[in-house]
Amino acid sequence: MVTRSKDLTPAIRERICELHAIGWGYKRIHTRYPYIPLSTIRYTVKKESERRDGVSKPRSGRPKKLTEADKGRVLNAIHGDPKITAEDLLAEVDHKVKYRSIQRLLNTENLRKWRCSWRPFLKEEHALKHLRWAFRYRHFTLEDWARVFWSDECTVERGIGVRREWTFIRPKDQPKEGQCQGLPSRGKQVKQMFWAAFSGATRRTGLIPLFGDPEAERTGVTGLVIEDLYRRILPILLMNQDSIFQYDNAPTHTAYVVRNALAEMQIEAMEWPPYSPGLNPIENLWALLKAKIYELRPDLLHMRNNDTTKEILVATAQQAWDELEIRHLEHLSETMPHRVEAIIESQGWYTPY
User: Fold this and answer.
1) What whole-number distance in Å separates Cα of residue 237 and Cα of residue 321?
2) Shortest CA distance to 230 belongs to which of 198, 201, 197, 200?
């Protein structure tokens, strides 16, 4: 929507008309006031006889229902409660207008509502641990961060992570133009848990499927599964003595058998605060991975829900991981100083990451 430019002040209008009266042409006046369009200068001179003391006549059309006081109440209500509802905003102006008028006001003020970000619920003790972690690693340089191997698990489920498509065709015309995006299959879908690690020195593991422990009570991934994984992968992955290994605080990773295995292999593990997925740059890779899967195999969305589809899903996920560009690894590692400073700035609470 094109917004109307601000009116000229009475003083500026009088000055333009005075210059024109002493013989200045429109273009010469424009050179004195280059920020005023030439067409505005012509119109100002033309309408001078219809004004009083340089003030414009009232504009034609229906008077605005929202007064300046109403606008102030709406903006103050938003400032006081950014999550205020449309109904409450209308109540601020006694329902004298429809919500469309409120929307026009918000557009004029360049205000819009955004969906709230999902973040883990933090307590004071969590924020303090985040802050302690940030101060501990604040001195790290980019070279230091490149020594860190970031690790995590990710469950890839068919249909999850598909990027929304955008089109210039209006929604009502999309069906006949063939511009609709198909929905993935509903209900329980085939899925697989994976583990991976990478460093800013552009080294990474493959995307390794994780399978549950058949002897466990719930036959899920246990500390024994993670211990076996670490003993197979980490001695080769962390060949350089100055490498640092990061892993999260999930119970499967903090189990005694896992901590004991890391100590036996003399692996330097990074201290990791609780409830901090936004600190681990590998989280950003998971979103890229899931989008890449459907670039490689868009037909996965509509395959049968069976073991064959699961095999294709696993193979495609591993291929997508291998094809993620090296520059993503470098860039994510280089964001760590900014993430650390963001934690310190927020006093250990939520950050944009």
Assistant:
1) 17
2) 197
**Parallel, antiparallel, or unpaired: how do β-strands 244-246 and 148-157 relate?**
parallel
pLDDT per residue over 268-288, tens digit each? 888 888 888 788 999 989 989
The H-assigned helical ranges of the chain are: 10-21, 26-32, 38-46, 68-80, 86-92, 99-108, 124-136, 142-146, 174-177, 223-237, 251-254, 256-264, 282-296, 307-323, 326-334, 336-345
313 within 8 A of 158, measured Cβ to Cβ: yes
**Residue where the block lists tokens 């008028």:** 101
* Side-chain-facing half-sphere of 292: CA atoms under 13 Å: 18
Architecture of the domain delimited by 124-346: 2-Layer Sandwich (3.30)
| pLDDT tens-digit map of 27-83 | 999 999 998 999 999 988 888 877 766 566 666 667 778 888 888 999 999 989 989
Angle formed by the axes of helices 307-323 and 282-296, to 10°?
A: 120
Full-model pTM: 0.68
Domain ranges within the chain, ordered by starting residue: 10-50, 68-112, 124-346
pLDDT tens for 295-342 read 898 888 888 888 898 999 999 999 999 999 999 999 999 999 999 999
Bridge partners of 198? 150, 204
